[in-house]
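note to self: the first set is below, dont mix up w the second
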Amino acid sequence: MAYSSHLQSKVLEGTRGLVFKYPLDKGNHSYSRDGFRRSGSSQRRCWDRQRASVFLGTANRTRKNYSSIKHINAATDASVAYRRDYDAGKGKRVTAETIVSDEGDRVIRIESDIPGKLLLHWGLEGNEGEGWRLPGKEVWPEGTVEYKRRALQTRFGDGGVEIRLRNDDPARYLNFVVKDTASGEWYDINGSNFHVPISLVDDESKMSVGSGSADEMVQQNQKKVLLREEDIPSIPQDLSGVWSYMKWEASGCPNRSQEEADREYQNAIREIAMFLRQGCSLNDLQKVAEDGVERYKAFAREQEMMWTQQPMPAAEAQDGGDVDVDQDVVNFRAYLMWEQAGKPDGADFGQAARAEIVQLLGEGKTMEDIRHDMNMAGAEDTQHVREEAQRDDVVETPKEKQVDEVQYTVGEGIGIRYRNPLDLIHRSGAPRLSEVHKKTPKPLQPLWKMAREDEDCIWHRVYSLGSKSEMLVSVWKEGDEHPYKVVLTTDNPSELVMHWGVRKGGRSWKKPDVALLSGDSDLVPDGIAAETPFKSCSDEECHIEIGGSIVPLQRVELSVPGNAKVSAISFVLRSDDGSRWWKDGGSDFLAPLLAKDASKSVDEVGEVDELSQTIIDCEVKSGAWTLMHRFNKASDLLEDIVQGRFEPADKAMATIFVWLRYSAIRQLTWQRNYNTQPRILGAAQERLTHKISDVYSSLQGQAKEFARLCLTTVGRGGNAQAVRDEILNIMHRNKVKEVKGTWMEEFHQKLHNNTTPDDVGICEAYIAFLKTDGDIGAYWGTLSDHGITRERLESFDRPIVTLPEFMGDKKENLIRDFENYLGILKATHSGADLQASASAASDFVPGSAKSYLGFVLGQQNSSNVLSLMEAAVECRTEINGMLGDHREIMYLDLALENIVRAAAERGAGAAGSSAASLMAPLLQNLALSLENNEEICYCLKAWQDLDDEVKHGGYPSKDQALRGMAVIERIRRALADASDTMVNTLQDISSLLGNAFGCEEWSVQLFAEEVVRGGPAFAVSLVLSSIEQNLRSAAEMGAWQVISPVEKTTGKLLMVPDLHVVADEVYKEPTILLASRVTGEEEVPLGVVGILSGDAPDVLSHLSVRCRNMKALFGACHEAEPLETLEELNEKYITITTNAAGAVSWEEVDSSAVASSESARDDAKTKKKLSVAKPTWCKKWSIGIDSFENGVVGAKSKNLASLRGKLPEWISLPSSIALPFGSFEAAMSSSINSDIASQLEKSVKDARNGDTKALSTCRELIMGMEIPEEVQKDLAQTMKSNGISAPKDSDAWYQAFRALKAVWASKYNERAFTSTKRVGLDFDDVTMAVLVQKVVQAKYAFVIHTTNPMTGDEDEIYCELVKGMGESIVSGTVPGSALAFTAKKNDLENPKIVLYPSKSQGMFVREESLIFRSDSNGEDLEGYAGAGLYDSVTTAVMTQELVDYSSDQILTDPEFAKDIMSRVCKTGAAIEKSLKSPQDVEGVIDPDNVITVVQTRPQM
């Protein structure tokens, strides 16, 4: 086996089951018939040679003893060659021990203190690749029996089990598991067999890791021999990660290329392997990793001393003279060992390397074998050695590179530990700003309010002056002679002077004319400015009292004559003694003299809030403006947000984010009329990013989320002076002359003058140019990737117009220097760069995260995307609680998020159904990024609770796939909600600012969408698209995927070959497009109300987002037949209907159906008009169930009464009373409601005449009506006589009457109005009785259709069940599917699930309550679905709460579920039999699993 491939296998053995300890795992494992653990999903019978590994540094756990190899010192126990202690929990253990006798025989002893009758189930394994076998009977312990020719079984005696093997037996390993025959439990290592090397070393090589002086350690190891690679234990992947991280820390966290990071990770693995071969145990190395980088340095020195100072091993002393050892191989191996030890200065590994090679020769390998193995192990290292030898003065002849395309795969995970996803919920963010900073009145607030509301004030702005003081600048319209007056008012306590000049059309400061000077103003001698002192303001408006004290204000007023030709007043402030100066974040203050308020220049995007106007003024009206000015102003505004000046905080933070992102994507100037030195820009960046970090900890909810996003737009700054200095150093080191007209000098001048984030892209482009031996295409291609054009290069104040020149003799040095320089640039400008972020955060990263971070740093380009994603997400999880403590941790978090997204984009598309393995880490990644993440956490839990065949893209059964599809539907809906929330928050703000800034149209239109697509939700949507089709097929679900749901839409169907081709069309009538090709990037053409296609883009594609925003139907069909049927309807008018389960149906309609978007009016003309008898009032306010009769109450009440005595005893009916037909009209006709009655009559008439807004007025009037006193008395009596507790006090009666009036008012809702009009009914002819019941506390609620409504099968019952109240099914307010199941009426004991629940929420009433149910006279009217149009209302508050179906007994306990579903089906059958017609039944199941039917009506 090659050196590197063997080590890699050692690491991979530790990746498939990363755990926290090395315990025995009890019970519930699937074993093959031979009794050994089945390996993987293939169910092959094999010995599982995977070895469990140890998890390092995880917080909130107690470290368990790792079963490390214990090499016993020969002086204390000369015969023990190997021992492992396995912790069984609760103080119990299993010990495996190998003893070598003087004759070389090996005795394997297995002991355990686990109580019970134990059985050892075992076999042997030969050399690598030789498989397992059973030994001859001569070595069987007494009582051993053969188990199906696959294994041996030996009972434990008092001393355990002892197995003796002869010295010539080729067996290398003993594999076993332990069974307690009394309980039937199997014991193994987390699903793996115990796997014990029978002989690691000979008896002369027993070792121990000393702890004495260096001389003692050398003396102890006089006879030390390296272990063979195949005999060292598995290297845990997390140990590799943390070791790599420590090596990086030990070298000072240098900037590294990805190739260097990958090589360093492999070096860490080799170094660990070398320490293990030198006799260190995993426990030793684990302790080093826990103790940190300083312990690592000391440990490496100790090992170096032991192995570089020891004499030649005995094998070489005896045979070395006769052994032909290739010195080149010794040198090469010594170099690798030096690298693995951390490249210690002056260390010589020559003797240790020679000893290793001699030992390998003694084992039978040839020099050619060793050379071949080492070359494979160190391919990269060989190149590195060559580079070290060649140095700068040797130039290789360039060779054309053959670059193979990387094939990305999902691969194996790192075996992350289980976390309860609900623990990730951000249940309590920071307190609201109003709680953190008790908002105190601001002295200038009344003056600001007056200026804002006064039409004569044409411009106003408040500026912060620090120390909590402010200045209000306002411009007022005056008379003809002096058309403008500029007023400055401040509460600053210092004596101030206004130092000012004027602008006359341009941006430069001009000396004011004498005519502008007031009596107190003077021109500055020999200057271009005037100065005017502030005076105490005695005007009435300046009399501001706060906290009982008058706040002194001071003011300056300047009148501007009409002939002055002044466009603006520019100014700064100074203290009277000149010791302090105030500016607007590095720029002059400005008072523009405009003909109208600046806010009116953006009327098309609506009213401009104060924060947005402040930002617009800075960007549009400032003469000198750079990144430095922008960042300083942003810092000031963030402080204002924290102080409560701009509210609400989430909108204010979104505004700051939009502003900074427009800057980051180059839509705003980075430099205008001002040169910023790098150190000044760096200081502004550092100030802003620290302010963002501070603000983050003060916010909650979406505002906190936007604060974090702000960091993605700004580099961390800091030592930006190095940007200016290092480019010159590079030129000097490489003897590149500062010659004008060369690329290097132009780049140098650009950096010297003004560094910007463009410099990162320019530097990367030059590196690409160098690495491709001067390929100018690589240069321009890299610039293009960064959005940098030739025009942009030429637009700099110090332009770059010359192409780079390839200097072959300096290539390697320039690459090295510019890669280092790129790190400096990224540290300044690229905040979320992983390398820069990890380096900056190294002092703050907790130990529990270092192993994951080390893995990510070394594996960024790994083709195994799953392990990379898991490590990045786990690192994010470990540091999540520290985000508000350190800016650098926030940057690291953003960088890791980018790693996850990039990995998903690389792997999801090509992975197919196996991309399902990526779903869990991607959902966890999204949960960490969202502040309002509760629903995503529930989605993650639901996904984790699915079967492995679904989670890992296997071959699920139909039932498994159905459950998976329910979870996918919930995830899809959560993604859409998160996307819509972000888009709705950002779109108006980005439109307002973008249009005011004059940004490119594309950047404004796509702003919100691009933020969503660049976020973590988009990666989840990619995986959904990859796995859904296979699950749909396995679940035998319908053909349609409704991406943008619309319940019903009507239009003309038109076939188009490609949606992109018709994107700019304008359709003059409602149109439904059937597109052969859809990519997801297209626009929705005007006039289109629906899009159907065989393509299914992801839910967050541009087209998907647009359709949802426009309320347009978007459905993707996964089968050919429905599409072919639709093609036959080309250019015909159709109505398409969808339902919550994702079914799509259509019918051809007449063209008149699309005359308007509503289509209801014309549709109603084609239907037969219906009529309904309007019942009269029975003169009773309330009646008991005995009086539920025709003409008195509706079908709900009557049917409930008729069920009494006809149902099985296990079905309950609730106590019920009713307010009969006419009660509402009688109450409204009372004299106390006369005014409301007349207004209601008018509003009803208006509604009949087409004013649908009048319906809202009708409802408001009813909610304001008075309930006659006699109603309360009558209700109380009727309730008491029918077993219902009446409301206890006036508050309870108020809630009862509120619910009653709400039911009456629902007669006038828009849906009911439209429905009655469509069938020709007068909506006011519908009369409302009200059924009153006590609410049953619902564990579940159900709806039964005794004839299957999907198929029309009268012999099959169809049921839906949800957690909580039934309103989440019938109200339509809770999206998603219920648990749906059917049963044949002749087989009600065996219901079948057809749909699993995907609803995110349930509806609950947590307090004792009454419910008032609508019961209209249209309930049973043929052709009119009166049911569900009107409301049912509880007296107590009904809340919507997130629900977890995955852990509910209805899904986790098959027997319980079967019993519940069967009883529900039997309930429907019993009611249908009693009422002699198909029924729609509603009921609940209480916490004791008792079924109560609350209402039933004939099935329509």
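second set (the one i keep forgetting abt)
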Amino acid sequence: MTSRPPMAVSQRQPQRTLSGSGLSQSPTHQRTLSQQYLPQSPIRKSEAFIEQPSDLGDVAQSRFNTLPRRGGSRLKLELANDGIEHPGFSESPQNLDALSANKAFTPSRLMSTNDVSDAGDLTPRTSRCHTTDEDSAPLPMPPRRARFVIPTKRPEPPSTSAPLSKKDTRPKPFQLETPSIAPRYPNMGKAEPIGFADFYPWKGGHAEDQFSEPIIKHGYFEKAPAQSAQEPASAKGPLFPALKHKSGLHTLSTIFTGILSSRRHSGQITSASTFKPPPRVTLTDTKREIWLKDLANPAISLRRLSRTIPHGIRGKILLDQCLNKNVPTDRAVWLAKCVGANEIRAFKRKGVNGTFVMGGEAKWIRDWTVFVEQFVEAVTNAFSENDWKSKITYAIRLATHLYAEHLLDRDHYMDWLVSGLENSNQARLPMWLLIIQIYWKDLLKLRRHGRRLISAILSHHSSIYFHPDRDILLPLATRLQSLVESLLLTSPENFINPCVWFKFRDSLVVPPESSNNENRSKMFKSIDLRNDYLTSSNAKSQPALRSIVVQLLDSIHRTPLDDAIPKRLWKTSENKLSIVRTILEWSTSLYRPGVAKVYVATTLLRSPSASDVDVTGAILDFLSTDPLQEKARKQLVYHLVSELTRSSHFLVPRYVQWLIARGGIPNLAGTEPDGPCITRLLIEIPIHSLSESMRNLRATLLRRVSFSVDFEATDMAMAKSHVKKMLSVPLDADDPLLQKKPMSVKKMSKLIGLSSRSLKTTISSWLSNDFIGGIAHNLQSGKGGIELPKGTFETVRTLLEATEDYAMLENVLKLMTPSSNSELLACCADTINLHLSVFAATGTAKSLFHALYERLKTILEEQGVGARPLLASLANLAPRLTGLEDIATQLQNDLIRIDRSSAADASSPLSDNMATQLQDAETELSEQIEKLASYTSADKPTMERLFHAIIKKLQTYWGKDDERQRLCCILLTRLRVFDIQHFNILMRGWVQHIRKLTKRPSIAQLLPSLVSSGCLSLGILFATAHRSQVQNPQFQPSAVGSASTYMQEILQMLMKPVKPSPVMTSEDCYRFSIVQDRARREHAKEIMPLIRGALAEYSASRNQHARIPQPLDDEETEAQLLELLRGLVLVNPNAASQTLSLKSPDAKLAALIETWTTKLLAPDDNSGQKSFEQVLELANEFTLPFCQVKLSLNLATDDTSGPEGSEKLQSQFELLSKAIDNAIDANNIMWTGMLPSLSPDITQHMRNRAESRFLDLIPSLKNTPGEAAFDRDIYMAENLLTVIDSIFRGGSGSKVSPLSSALVDKLADLWDILASRNAEFASLRTTVLSHWLPLVFSYLTLYTSPSAGAIDLSKISGGEVRARALVVLAGLVQELDNYPSSNLRQHAFDIALALVDGLPEEARLQCVRAVKDATADPRIRYLFSFAPNPAENFMLSHREKPPVGIQERRALAMGMGMSMAPERLTPFVFRRWEILNEPTPNVGENDTSLSLTLFDARKIK
């Protein structure tokens, strides 16, 4: 806009040629403000006026054809340039005479009063330096006021030896003398003497002193005015009467207004703009370097440099040159604009269409932005250079200037900034934080960048927060913490991102000490609730909450080592009493097998999250409302209460008080084992945990109903004596059991299992605290004693397992940890492995493992190979514990190394007669084992010969209970070490051979010993039952004899407990139990086909005339199979559904599967088929997995590819849809939890049907329901939303689909209802606000859940529909501002934030175009990530030509004729790249970057 150079930069002065001298004036150096108003140093005095050659003409004169103007009056200039008259410094212009440099600056030294210059008539000059003697000397300036009192230095009289003259005392006439300090002014080429400012004495001889008639009439003129023909006479005559009139003032103002208007139009610039960006020329490298150095020199004007901008300086080279030459930032930006303007104009000169021009310009700006990004990144990474600090400061400043002037693609640049922060390591993180904080406000104002910025900062903060070396990174952690805290308070919207928030939430829970805890906690809670609203199920009915809690409890049961699930469970609802009630029902449900659920419930109720819950009251309320008729459920309640009583979470005094308030125990029947649970609990409570007073009160209550408390005490004492007798603990002398034989462990375990919980806890407490605790205490205190024998430990373990008191068993394991007996410690590890689900539920599994692992390290150093039993047990346990993969691999490698160190070398000469010796029945296998132990390797042929020889001998002992069968297993274990892979191949072939045998002993007499010893893995065992064989209808009829029961026997072997025998010791049986437990929990997918094959075998045996005994005919096996099926369905319900729902052509097999699945759902129901309605009626939170299996079985068809199969499938869909509709109408929505696990086609069909019904219920202005139908429709919509919620959040069952157009239309209808101001829709608006909008928003949150957010929604079709939904939500946000009391505005905005994150770019731009001109709401701009560009939306006003007539002009000037000059608006393109100062060396009338006609500029005359 202006050619004024920046401050502290010299201004080019006009060049003048002196008349007659041929000399030119040199431009003077323009001083800064401090130099203009402060005295200069004498040292710098000589540098201030160094001459600089210039070849530029008089800019001002050539531009406006006028004389050059000074910056103020002459007096001002002299005042600004004169210095303090003081010896040592002066601000007078320098004289070219070298001899005058040291002379004092006084007017007398410049020129006397009577001197007259010989130069001609000269124009005023702007130079303040001396010229030749012929030139007019510059005006001396009056001195400034001294800052301090300077004593006047009087000239000393010259010392002379001449005699003094006599003083003249005669009077003299007065004569006015010129003061010595009076400033002078030049004569401006006139023949008059030089005058002095403010000193012009009157002498009486001036021209105006000569009076004449014209002077008296018209005044004195130095030059007579030109006589105009239009005004030959004075205007006083015509004007004076008009001014005397009452409207004279108005007339006078009209005249002056017209004069001003004429003046304005007469000098106005009307010529077209002649602006052109500075051209580029091709220069040599030397000249280019000189030009760049001149550019870096602020003293050289840009107008001079604009002549020759060199080619080849562009992009990254331009930025590097500016950095290397240290070009001032404003001059570097000027160069970038010059290059950019030429590059952009080059596209327009190619003669192509406008689209290509716009695209080419955008591409060039994008490439230029990339160059700037690379430039900043390169300088940032070069931190090893010495001047790195100055370079990075320059680079950041230059990039910031380019960004501030909108010379970059801001979106691309912001994206680069955020990407750099996201991908930065900790070493470069401080620099990225420094850079990005410059653009902090702009980034946070846009959703697309602000969300990523917050995510990156939280990621870095979390990684440092949980870093093990956090103290080293404390400065960075403190900086990040302060940034996060400020962002939490100032920009909460950017934290609304559920996936990121819940990932890094834990690092933000604890506020820093220096923060404002109250405001910070409020904001944190608000953000947490807003993110939770977008993720949790918003169908907040009680059944939905119970279903969620049950699902989480099942997850804990399946993966008990996951610590995150309990936290999620307690966050499902604020009503923790309902959660506790669901936990109690789940832990006592018969549909959840095992005792681990009791310890899961105990751990949850003991957790800090339940500290504010009245557990005792919740249990008592549960007992009073649930009848608990089943005996198994009562035992579970007693077990749970006993565990909580030990930790004082269940208060027995309160229970007794509550029981007394209810009337106590009514009769003796209330104390029977099958009596009411509410009264029987008083007997089952562990007595050893009660105080003496509570025991007496308990005994009093029991004696009132004739319950023998003494007999109970005697029974407990007797049981304790039997246990002491079994453990060889000395009894009292008068004990009746002293002379009797000890009871067997099996019998004692059975009796304990049938006893009350009170007796069980008494026995377990004595075993753990008194017996084992006493032994451990004696060993640790050094009182002597021996370690606990392995057999004794097994007895104690068996008794504790009979009591099911695993808390005491856990205590025993902890006490046994210091032992040095590797076999005893191996038993401890096996105990943990078998009851891993229980110990994981109590949270002690990993701690026990680590204790045993530390003992293993010590025992390995002390005993070496003797530690193998413990090593083998830990190697078997470690893979089942999460997070210990490395330790498990190490243990397995150590076990193989130890085994190989003691294995035999089958390639030795011993291998020649090994097979022969094994065939000799009289040869002792123990000798072969000893010989085999002295070698270390074997080749495959030898290994095969040894394997078949051992297997042949093993088959001879099969079914004979010969202990030599166990020795063969040990020999196979040693042989396996040589080549595990080849051994598994041999073993697999032999098992397949066993399967085909028609006459053989039972599988249970052979394979358990092989499995227990590790020779036969579960993988090989399951590989013998291929699915293709199961599904082949020709397989079963061909199998005869024992081959027809193979799968049943394998299944029975995996279910039935193994008893100790000569073939398998108690230790082997215990390890086989571990294998059985692992098969149920970790191989559910392999066991399900095995069960189906076993059922197929059992069904086929019914068609045979000569039936052989079937394992499934056994009632005990049938009960075990039902228990196994129940556990497998809970572990993996999908695998169970897929396996059992495969239709078979065998009708008997189908009926058998129907019967068994019905028993899973209703144990007391022996009927087979269940209709859809019956299945839905039986559905509740605990039966959902079994209903799912039953439902999948009913929907299965033989073949869906043909037309008949499709018709049958469609009919099944219709039946299921009808049943679901009936269930919804009957308010039965408990079955919704099983819908997600059905086939995708079924769930999609159900979802579409429910969504259609839900949307049809939403009202609109065109379809307004009656008031009576409001409640019914809302109730139905809530049930339908629960169904949709269950299907959608179920996971993979339902396909991910975009928003439907019908939903957006309904959302727009609700917007219309709220926007309507019609009084008849007042009740409808109230209903919409209170019910329909919350329901629709809850439905929309299904698309904002983490499962939906994990999918790249930009790749899914439907972006236009999502864009429409966002525009409607934006409108609702503004409309709901009229209802500030409701939270719906916040919910609508949060949903829009979650939906816009996955919006495609094209759809986002479409939304921007839709709302850009409609609103200026910053929330909408943030939502759609667009910022108002100050260069956009400029409009150019075009006025018609002004009226020609004088009357019209006068009316226009008076404001009465504005309609005569209409305005026409057209878009104005603001080209930022062409906003240049000093664009060209040739100054024109209208050559600025913005045309002067836009501002009505006028020429200055």
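remember for set 2: Strands lie at 184-185, 195-196, 280-281, 309-310, 1435-1439, 1463-1467.
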